Amino acid sequence: MPLPPRVPRRAFFFTLLGFSVAGGGWVYHIHKNKNQLKQQILGFWHLDRTTLDGQRLLLADDTKNYYLINYWASWCAPCREEIPVLNEYFNLNKQTVGVLGIALDQRAAVLNFLRNYPINYPVVMADSVDLIFLDSFGNITRALPFSLLLSREEIMYSKLGKLTPQDLSAWSIL
What we know:
- By secondary structure, the chain is α/β, with parallel strands linked by helices.
- The chain contains 5 helices and 7 strands.
- Strands 5-4-3-6-7 form a 5-stranded mixed β-sheet, covered by helices on one side. Strands 1-2 form a two-stranded antiparallel ribbon.
- A hairpin with a 3-residue loop joins strand 6 and strand 7.
């Protein structure tokens, strides 16, 4: 028994229309999120910061197009373990890639830590804006350590957990 000719066409049309609208909405959502992330990365580059040694730091003024950002704390064992790896990376790449440590800790604890364990790259104290960036950059649990390689427009790489020389080798941009 054949179906009435208009019912399948209407059902097909409305089903197709529904998928098109949903698919278009999904594409818009992804595009919108990419644009928002791009704006947040741009905002991150334009934050005016002061390092623990009192130097002004504005990434946007730097000639480097890439920065390795490392969120850490003095009480975090994996964070402490990766500092020599980050020091070596900074020493080898400081002409082309910046490194910035962002401490999610008490200032006194960080300063005390740095007396015994020097860090060669700039370190700043995290503020409420950095917590927003942590969320935006994909670390909504705010677990440490968390590292990213940022270009001026995108997150090139990110890792939650201790960085290794193999990670940094895989992240090579040059």
